[in-house]
Design goal:
This protein is of the alpha/beta class. The chain has helices at residues 15-18, 32-46, 59-72, 95-101, 103-110, 124-139, 154-164, and strands at 5-10, 52-55, 76-78, 147-152, 183-188, 194-201. Substrate binds at residues 10-17, 60.
Length: 215
């Protein structure tokens, strides 16, 4: 058996998002706008009658999930496998600051080439494998009547879902980043896999402020 729908939901805005600072696994809280985004998005997602609620244990994702938990009464199931990509000593730095000190590394990231973030962070491939494995584990639980909300992070969601769907890495850049508190909806497909129902859903297009280097 498997779930009937997966909603992969990005957390609300943080001050570091606004400042274009890489967050990675630094535990940065939602700012006031992010809290309001989470409340508004939670009200929309509650209308889908979710039956399970997972979240990264980083507080920006946990607080976002908390708004939906408050409306639905669902218990949040925390999973550290749903964390954002680990960027090590790049955390707290802007793209401009990284470009000034490690231009070749940042250029490889932007080109979609294999590159570890920071001194000892993850590669895109590593976080894609981690998130894909978590989605696989979560998706096989439950029944076709279940709608599962998974609260996570922008870059991790994008590359993890691409890996989960079997999309070749050369095409990952064709899938745009998620705005704060927007989500991706996945439905089972006829071939026992999954298909995209909605991508970056939840609002009109907004600027993407995240660790995702597409911008």
């Amino acid at each position: 058996m498997s779930a009937g729908r997966l909603i992969v939901w990005r957390h609300g805005r943080t001050e570091w998002n606004l400042q274009d600072k890489m967050q990675g696994q630094a535990d940065i809280p939602l700012d006031e706008v992010g809290i309001e985004q989470a409340r508004a998005a939670a009200a929309r997602l509650a209308s889908l009658a979710p039956t399970r609620l997972f979240a990264s244990d980083l507080q920006r994702a946990a607080a976002t999930a908390g708004e939906l938990a408050a409306l639905t009464g669902l218990k949040i199931e925390y999973d550290d496998a749903l964390r954002e990509i680990h960027v090590d000593d790049w955390a707290g730095k802007t793209s401009a600051e990284i470009a000034a000190t490690q231009p070749e590394a940042l250029a490889r990231v932007r080109a979609g080439q294999t590159q570890r973030r920071g001194t000892a962070g993850e590669t895109a491939e590593e976080v894609a494998d981690r998130i894909s494995a978590a989605l696989t584990r979560i998706s096989v639980e439950g029944t076709s009547e279940d709608t599962v909300v998974i609260t996570t992070h922008g870059f991790a969601a994008r590359v993890g879902i691409c890996q989960f769907l079997g999309i070749p890495q050369a095409h990952w850049s064709a899938f745009g980043g998620l705005a704060n508190c927007n989500w991706i909806s996945l439905l089972p497909s006829r071939n026992n896999g999954w298909r995209i129902e909605e991508w970056n859903a939840g609002s009109l297009p907004e600027p993407v402020m995240s660790d995702d280097p597409q911008r």
